[in-house]
Amino acid sequence: MKNWKRVLVLLPAIMMICTVSVFAAPPKTWVVGFSQIGSESEWRTADTISVQNAFNEDLTFNLIYSDAQQKQENQIKALRSFIARKVNCIVFTALVETGYGPVLQEAKKAGIPVIMIDRDVQEADRSLRLTIMGSDFIKEGEKAGTWLADYLKKQGLDDGKKSINIVELQGTTGSAPAIDRKTGFANIMKQHANWQLTRSQTGNFTTSEGKAVMEAFLKADSTIQVLYAHNDGMALGAIQAIKEAGLKPGKDIIVIGVDGVKGAFEAIVAGEQNVTIECSPLLGPQAVQAVTDLRAGKKLPARIWTIEGIFDATNAAAALPSRQY
Ligand code: GYE
């Protein structure tokens, strides 16, 4: 009798649970604005395609894509237009780390959540964006330095006394990966008193500028032993410059790149690049997952890391066929 009464009292709730599970409302369609920085590298193209495909495959999202063509003012305009259109969420890659404070404040005021992918901003108010997903660029720089230390040791090229002359091709000035990859590499340099950074200049993450800057380095300096390029695109441009100067890249000059694009794998297999530190651009599925969680009312972690490897002559050939970018 008692049990029977309990069932009667709980009946409305039981019915509601059944209705919700059988006729669960489909997720609300969300409009997502994606502000991309441009198409300066093979990496960037793979990243754009990954994000576009992942959102377009999910019919509950409507992605508005904006390409800033490497101009911060274009990005700020795009973000303002997303706010004016009252998008549900903004996915944002910042060209450089600073200068977006006011527009991010506007998004916050409008109640539009911002998810950073790949490149973060440096704003004192960390609440201006919900999360940042992507790679640890400082760690990438450290991996490059550690790889070099191991390689020089194995080849018997570093006695700890004679100087090791290194040149650096930096990424876009003021961007998170350029700042952090420099810092990470410098952290390892500090442990090697004889390593000298003889030249360091931006190649803007492009193959053409990487080539031009390396040409200038080679003209001015015949003692270069190592090139550390903040991305593979610039390393590949520099390889051309090294060849045109009558030297053998990968042998006369050790070439280190970052990203892990197909071109770098091919250059490693050909013996012209020595190593690439992987940085995955395939952020689309992770971005969709984060926005889906957000829509469902879940709290996002403040940092979502990408897991990445290191590829050199010991493992690049085996990995090449399965590379996706
Ligand atoms: O390494 C470079 C690109 O932000 C991690 O940008 C990205 C960098 C990548 O153009 O190739």
Description:
The chain is an alpha/beta fold and 325 residues long. The chain folds into two domains: 30-134 and 282-307, Response regulator (Rossmann fold, 3-Layer(aba) Sandwich), CATH 3.40.50; 137-279, Rossmann fold (3-Layer(aba) Sandwich), CATH 3.40.50.2300. 44% of the residues lie in helices and 19% in strands. It contains eleven helices and twelve strands. The strands form two sheets. Strands 2-1-3-4-5-11 form a six-stranded parallel β-sheet, sandwiched between helices. A six-stranded mixed β-sheet has the order 7-6-8-9-10-12, sandwiched between helices. The termini are far apart. The structure holds beta-D-fucofuranose (GYE). The site of beta-D-fucofuranose has 13 residues, from helix 2 and strand 9.
List its salient traits:
binds beta-D-fucofuranose; 19% strand; six-stranded mixed β-sheet; elongated; alpha/beta; six-stranded parallel β-sheet; Rossmann fold; 325 residues
